[in-house]
Predict the 3D structure of the following.
Amino acid sequence: MVLRVTDMGVARGGVPVLDGVSLALGPGEALVLRGPNGIGKTTLLRAVAGLQPALAGQVEAAPESLVYAGHADGIKAALTVTENLAFWAQVFGTDDISTALETFRLAPLAHRQAGALSAGQKRRLGLARLLVTGRPVWLLDEPTVSLDVDAVAMFAGAVRGHLAAGGAALIATHIDLGLAEARVLDLAPHRAAPLELDDFDGVFL
Ligand SMILES: Nc1ncnc2c1ncn2[C@@H]1O[C@H](COP(=O)(O)OP(=O)(O)OP(=O)(O)O)[C@@H](O)[C@H]1O
């Protein structure tokens, strides 16, 4: 197993949103998180990534094996595409940025300032970052937002390549990525029970 989440409960703004979530990913596996807007997909992914505390449960993964890609891609607007990738390579202690440039067809934009990219191009740069990190377990929050049909296929290809190389991916998405190999976890049955009135008051104390 490269990632195991056991009986996790998460809250947003002090209000529990999900509980009892368990999942496991082995090398080469992808799992898609499904559920309606607001059910807590982002909150769960952030908790798994260690970016916010969980209410309950455990996350087991090798140290420094996880990388999270969320809505804010961490792009530095004043740096060029190449400089952004080189910066991340330095942060993560890797050295290959050419695979990332190629996979997301960023080579023609290599010397463009990131701030001058379109929304979809920025998204491609944010996803290219995943390849540069060299980390095996990708935690992806709505990775295809702003991507056109070609770029979605590009992204699906990158995920497939990652899985084939023994990586894993946990993906919150509303669209069908065409990843036949991905399992699906519906979060609807894990919606946290509404708070009792007393507890509800407690949230605001
Ligand atoms: N800053 C915040 N403070 C308090 N509650 C919040 C905050 N942001 C989101 N929420 C609430 O937390 C719950 C979970 O939100 P979350 O973003 O995790 O859902 P999601 O499943 O990722 O939704 P979507 O499909 O719309 O991206 C929602 O009910 C949302 O309204």
Residues 12-13, 17, 35, 37-43 surround adenosine-5'-triphosphate (CB under 6 Å). The chain has a mean pLDDT of 93. Residues 14 and 60 are 24 Å apart (CA to CA). Residues 149-164 form the longest helix (16 residues).
